[in-house]
Amino acid sequence: MLRAVRSLLSLHLGCGVRCAPRAFLAAARVQVSAVQPRGPFLYSSGRADSGPAPQSQGKIHRVPDQHTPSQFDKKILLWTGRFKSMEEIPPRVPPEMIDAARNKARVKACYIMIGLTIIACFAVIASAKRAVERHESLTSWNLAKKAKWREEAALAAQAKTK
Question: What's the predicted TM-score (pTM) here?
């Protein structure tokens, strides 16, 4: 309920009391009565109050019960196995069904990417083993490339001197 910060004693509701640096212990012993909020918080625009603002309790925004699926949604519904063909998909579908199908498609896509990554790793390993058998390495490629650059630079220097 009370929190001491240097010489400022902060109360729970944002009220502050100044006291000496070590006097907050004595101030903490004082019982603080809890202040109850008196209703919803109202924000002021800086103008004079014209009375309480009317609140429209009658208008409630609801999520629609049905959703018209797009072509992409229909493909996802087919891919995840919700329906067997495009003709079976009704013109209006519950949004929960589309959300569940999208989540299932997301998981399937992640599994496919994991599988492709593992296959690519094995392909790189096999390629590296073949390169080792041919006595090829990045170091030898780098040295050959630099030797070629030096040779080209030497030829360019000879052409300039002539």
Answer: 0.47
